[in-house]
Amino acid sequence: MEKVILYVDDAGYAAEQFAELAPDASSVVARHWVLVACAPRMTHRISKWVSHSARENWRAKWFSKVQAQLLPLLERNGGQVTPVLAKGPLADLTQQLKREHSATLVVDARRPKIGVDLEPVTPEQAPARQSGWAFPGAVMGMGALLVLANELAE
């Protein structure tokens, strides 16, 4: 049975990607999935007011929701799932999981974010390019100012 490490940060997006790759349920080959959930990070301003135990409790609840959405898809046709909640650098976690599970394939199904470079999940993976929609704030502000000036001129 082929073992696949699957990185996810948004269950809905990952389910869409999975449906595009295997639209026919009968075409899905039974695999052993190592489901690695990458919980969203809290900003520094929020995290300084939330206790460590409350953060871990929130991460556990978030992880259970992700599992509830993805387990039925991954367990089709006899697939097995080993859930893992990501902590620390993803490239190091990937190397550890490859050793533990002797996985051959790593799939990054995380949702791309506008203006944010996603952390690579393997050392060989090039950092994700920023989205074409990521403009500097000054350019967007200047565009808004030009539109406003045009409206006022008329």
Write up what this structure looks like.
The protein has 154 residues and is an alpha/beta fold. It is built from five helices and four strands. It has helices at residues 11-21, 44-47, 52-74, 90-101, 137-153, and strands spanning 3-8, 32-37, 80-85, 105-108. The chain has a four-stranded parallel β-sheet.
The termini sit apart by: 69 Å
So what's the overall shape? extended
> Taking Cα atoms only, what radius of gyration do you get, to the nearest Å?
20 Å
Strand order of the largest sheet: 3-2-1-4
Structural class call reads: alpha/beta
The percent range for strand residues is 5-15%
Q: How much helical structure, as a percent, in the residues?
A: 40-55%
Low-confidence stretches: none
> Biggest sheet, open or closed, and with what strands and sense?
4 strands, parallel
Number of helices: 5
Q: How many distinct beta strands? A: 4
Mean pLDDT across all amino acids? 79
Order of helices and strands: EHEHHEHEH
Please summarize what this structure is.
By secondary structure, the protein is of the alpha/beta class.
Q: Which features does this protein show?
A:
154 residues; alpha/beta; 4-stranded parallel beta sheet; 4 strands; Universal stress protein
Indicate the topology.
Layout: E1 3-8, H1 11-21, E2 32-37, H2 44-47, H3 52-74, E3 80-85, H4 90-101, E4 105-108, H5 137-153
Parallel strand pairs: 1-2, 1-4, 2-3
Helix pairs in contact: 1-3
